Amino acid sequence: MQLGTPQSFSRVLSSMCTEPHPAAREAAERFLATNPGDPGTYETVADLERTVVERLGEIVGLSDPAGYLASGGTEANIQALRLARNRADSTEPNVVVPASAHFSFTKAADVLGLELRVAPLDGYTVSLPAVRELVDEDTVAVVGVAGSTEYGRVDPIPALADAVADASGDPLFHVDAAWGGFVLPFTEHAWSFADAAVDTLTIDPHKMGQAVVPAGGLIARDESLLADLAVDTPYLESTSQITLTGTRSGAGVASAAAALDALWPAGYREQYERSQANAEWLAAELRARGDRVVSPTLPLVAADIGRDAIDAVRAEGWRLSRTEQGEARFVLQPHVTRETLTAFLDELDRVR
Ligand SMILES: *Cc1c(COP(=O)(O)O)cnc(C)c1O
């Protein structure tokens, strides 16, 4: 069998994942045959996972965090809503999410039997009056997005927390920072446990964190919140499990540990500054060409370069996705350098 060669990152412009940090790659290989889902047998990697959760706690403003490393943001979001549903006693539970929420919430609502109430946006972030209107006594969770997948925007997290506090039921407040979590600490945005009464939060080391896939993260304010996820595990040495998947990736855990060790905080700060500068530079270059650009507040640029141009650069091997509105979507991951962008703009000028 021919395995072929994985894609090179030199023309990948819209991925939320990136080239892993060398230390993360090395750690992943070393821990390939480990399973943190069975901590009795794979003790080292299980201990490492606790260390990673502690470190993620520092990033998200929580001194005594609970949580685990999931397969990605999708699993973390499903689990956050699952624990919210399990602790509520509603027979017709609903969850309120912004229209900008990632499609993983559609999957979560489907598998959990939750009614998905989608709050419209006011510009690029959620409309607070709409959220307040949609929340009722059967609302088990309200979701805020810190770094939206399409535009990199941050919902008003403290104001959403206030809306949750005022709710007639007792919903949990979940923040989805799957992509934004590794850049937001270096911005002025209010987004984390340190800024508002957040209950659970998703932050993915395998996106801006430069760990290998799969390494997602679910962080909870308190261990007791996770108790509602526990199921008995008769044939393991440990007696219960809170994760959704059983066997899990020790490689993901070890790589996240190595990436965090190498990069938090100085390395991630430098990367954020580089990526943000590139985002602003790209936005200015495209505006100078007459394109409408959605101003980047985080290192993600959406720009109306035209459908034909997107198709033409794709035909040249550029991996570029569209927003629902049809804008080209540039995610300024670590592998997207100024040289990459310069080469892209040359191509764009050639094709239009
Ligand atoms: C990527 C992303 C997810 C889903 O994460 P996966 O790791 O792809 O499962 C969820 N929410 C946001 C905001 C994301 O950017």
Provide structural commentary.
It is built from eleven helices and 15 strands. The protein is an alpha/beta fold. The chain folds into two domains: 22-263, 3-Layer(aba) Sandwich (Aspartate Aminotransferase, domain 2), CATH 3.40.640; 266-351, Aspartate Aminotransferase, domain 1 (Alpha-Beta Complex). The strands form four sheets. A seven-stranded mixed sheet has the order 1-9-8-7-6-2-3, with helices on both faces. Strands 12-13-15-14 form a four-stranded antiparallel sheet, covered by helices on one side. Strand 14 and strand 15 (328-331) form a beta hairpin. It is globular, with a radius of gyration of 20 Å. The mean pLDDT is 97. It binds pyridoxal-5'-phosphate. Pyridoxal-5'-phosphate binds next to helix 3.
CATH superfamily of the largest domain: Type I PLP-dependent aspartate aminotransferase-like (Major domain)
Topology-level CATH name of the largest domain: Aspartate Aminotransferase, domain 2
Strand neighbour order, sheet with most strands: 1-9-8-7-6-2-3
User: Which shape, going by the Cα principal axes?
Assistant: globular
Query: What percent of residues are in strands?
Result: 15-25%
The small-molecule ligands in this entry are: pyridoxal-5'-phosphate
Oligomer: single chain
> What is the residue-averaged pLDDT?
97
CATH class of the largest domain: Alpha Beta
Largest sheet: 7 strands, mixed
Structural class: alpha/beta
Give the CA-CA distance, first to last residue: 40 Å
- The total domain count is 2
**Helix proportion:** 25-40%
